[in-house]
Design goal:
Pfam families: SQHop_cyclase_C, SQHop_cyclase_N. Pathway: Secondary metabolite biosynthesis; hopanoid biosynthesis. The protein is mainly α. The chain contains 22 helices and 5 strands. The longest helix is centred in the N-terminal third of the chain and has 18 residues.
């Protein structure tokens, strides 16, 4: 329950004690820095990716690593929910698709279907309608294993690769993650290979009807009937004409898909640097007859192995890695401490980041903005075709902080090119998206293939706010910068009636509100601005009784009616505190109580325990637990609080 604003804060000696907490957290964060200067922390999703990894090995007929399989089994059993299935985030509701994949993977590993945990999972799956109710991507997995017919999967012929740019649906009208996933998948759906499955594992027991009778997917909740029925009709026509496609045309389409993949293979960092396109690429090469040692297939396969997290007792597969994001945010937190040693180590992190700026390759974003020069950073170690706006803005702001502090100019060119690239990718509505500009073809989320509703990369409040923060920190104002004024109008339009903003890439309204309040402060809007005031009041109102803040993935539901309480987490508490300080509320009792909660919950290592998920891959579909968030965000918030309380000027001076 929210707490009264008048609840007493910590005592007068708290600031002195806070120095020790900050010092301990600083030491802990520094201990994770790699020898070359960067940070990278685990990035955990749900049961889906590790389950898919197990199924990929058996699809290819590889000799499995039995010890690795055993450890993945330990992980999957540990995260099974009390409801018997698997959720998309800790303590989340049952999810049919994640549960079917996890059950399939555990059975493949060798778990007895009559073992208690398998029985509970099977009963839960059947109680929710059975495996015929899984999403499209899971249906494809089941079709590849022959568990359902290809009739259960929307038709996606390879000839999509040959559609002109003006066509209502082309690979250039969807997001980068959808594009890189779909292209090799087009080959799989056209050639329809069957998994080798040397252990002969099946999951017929998860269906309430004969699996062979499962038909096309039903309309998803986010889809409109008129659009869905239109696309369902197109799907029916494609089923009839697909077998009649001329062989020459089909081969040309497959060749185009292979060429697309080949250009973007990205070495051992993998196509798109995310798991789904990597796995689809390996299966694509396999069905096309390329042997396991064929160089392109082999490098794609090695990229997947680099996503594994293998511990003493368990293992899982990450969806991707996050070194640029982790490093940039760690640098911000360390610079906030003001500690000379920490600032020097942050500078080493920025030195590691500098050569990773993409300056010589126009990625897929240039299909819409061909006149813009490259200048962004990717999220991963290497992903030159797909730099993102969020990472770029955060890196630029960190470099600018070092420049302001030390007067050095070694980052000038990197900052200028990053700023130029971000300005060039502003969308027409004033906002910014993560990877592309104007990727707003919302009708495409109604195609049968898009039952997940995550086909597009439209502008979002959190990314737009980060870009505004960067521009403002670099000296632009709404009066001097038309792009900034346009973007501020965009944010004002999207503020919700309760005062919050939506968070696309972090959970959820706390994250979005943090992002926007930082931007509004950097742009010069004071605490008396109505939008700022309303947002600050909302944050104060939703504070938990213990002094922290929390929110979970249920906030993304389509029928969302307003904030619903969730247990406090360190990262979300830090976002709320940074928000309120950006809104000019450093002296509010809620801020003191939040900082006190962080101090009280700091563990012996100097960090915070946080098992709950606080980040988002795709709303309602895929959530993330950044293991680094509990390491740098609370430190950042505590250091800022101490600094502002001891300063003559209580205004936050930076974009984040």
């Amino acid at each position: 329950m929210p707490s009264p604003a008048a609840t007493p804060g910590p005592g007068a000696n708290f600031l002195g004690a806070l120095d020790a907490h900050i010092g301990k957290a600083t030491d802990a964060l520094l201990s994770y820095q790699q020898t070359d200067g960067h940070w990278v922390f685990e990035l955990e999703a749900d049961a889906t990716i590790p389950s898919e990894y197990v199924l990929l090995v058996h699809h290819l007929g590889e000799e499995p690593n039995l010890e690795l399989e055993r450890k993945i089994g330990v992980y999957l059993r540990r995260i099974q929910g009390d409801h018997g299935g698997w959720p998309l985030f800790k303590d989340g509701e049952f999810n049919i698709s994640a549960s079917v994949k996890a059950y399939f993977a555990l059975k493949m590993i060798g778990d007895d279907p009559e073992a208690p945990h398998m029985r509970r999972a099977r009963e839960a799956i059947l109680a929710h309608g059975g495996a015929s109710h899984v999403n499209v991507f899971t249906r494809i997995q089941l079709a590849l294993y022959g568990q359902v017919s290809w009739r259960a999967v929307p038709v996606m012929p390879a000839e999509i690769m040959l559609l002109p740019r003006w066509s209502p649906f082309t690979i250039w009208k969807v997001s980068y993650w959808a594009r890189t996933t779909i292209v090799p998948l087009l080959v799989l759906q056209t050639l329809k290979p069957k998994a080798r499955n040397p252990r002969g594992v099946t999951i017929d027991e998860l269906f309430r009807e004969p699996p062979a009778t499962v038909g096309p997917p039903e309309k998803a909740p986010h889809q409109s009937w008129s659009w869905f029925l239109l696309f369902r009709g197109i799907d029916a026509v494609l089923r009839v004409i697909d077998p009649l496609a001329p062989k020459g045309l089909r081969q040309r389409a497959i060749d185009a898909a292979v060429a697309f993949v080949r250009e973007r293979l990205n070495g051992e960092d993998g196509i798109g640097a995310i798991y789904p396109p990597m796995a689809n690429t390996v299966m694509m090469y396999d069905v096309l007859g390329f042997p396991a040692d064929y160089p392109e297939r082999a490098v794609a396969r090695r990229a997947i192995e680099k996503l594994l997290i293998v511990k003493d007792d368990e293992a899982y597969c990450q969806p991707c890695v996050s070194p640029v994001w982790d490093t940039a945010l760690s640098c911000h937190a360390l610079m906030e401490t003001g500690d000379d040693r920490a600032v020097e180590r942050a500078r080493a992190g920025l030195d590691w980041l500098k050569p990773r700026q993409v300056l010589d390759l126009k990625g897929d974003w240039a299909e819409i903005k061909p006149e813009v020069r490259p200048g962004g950073w990717a999220f991963q170690y290497a992903n030159a075709h797909y730099p993102d706006l969020d990472d770029t803005a955060v890196v630029v702001m960190a470099m600018d902080r070092v420049r302001q502090k030390g007067g050095e100019h070694g980052f000038d060119e990197a900052i200028d090119r990053g700023r130029e690239w971000i300005l060039g990718l502003q969308s027409k509505n004033g906002g910014w998206a993560a990877f592309d500009a104007d990727n707003t073809y919302s009708y495409l989320n109604n195609i049968p293939f898009s039952d997940h509703g995550a086909l597009l990369d439209p502008p979002t409040e959190d990314v737009a706010a980060r870009c505004i923060s960067m521009l403002a920190q670099l000296g632009e104002t709404p009066q001097s910068s038309r792009p900034m004024a346009h973007a501020l109008d965009y944010l004002r339009r999207l503020q919700l009636p309760d005062g919050s903003w939506y968070g696309r890439w972090g959970m959820n309204y706390i994250y979005g509100t943090w992002s926007v309040l930082c931007a509004l402060n950097a742009a010069g809007l004071g605490r008396d601005d109505p939008a700022v005031r309303k947002a600050a009041d909302w944050l104060i109102r939703i504070q938990n009784v213990d002094g922290g803040w929390g929110e979970d993935g249920s906030s993304y539901k389509l029928e969302y009616q307003g904030y619903e309480p969730a247990p406090s987490t360190a990262s979300q508490t830090a976002w709320a505190l940074l928000s309120l300080m950006a809104a000019g509320e450093v002296d509010h009792p809620s801020v003191a109580r939040g900082v006190a909660w962080l101090a009280q919950t700091q563990n012996a290592e100097g960090l915070w325990d946080e098992e709950r998920y606080t980040a988002t891959g795709f709303p309602r579909v895929f959530y993330l637990r950044y293991h680094g968030y509990r390491k740098f965000f609370p430190l950042w918030a505590m250091a800022r609080y101490r600094n502002l309380k001891r300063a003559n000027d209580r205004r936050v001076a930076f974009g984040m």
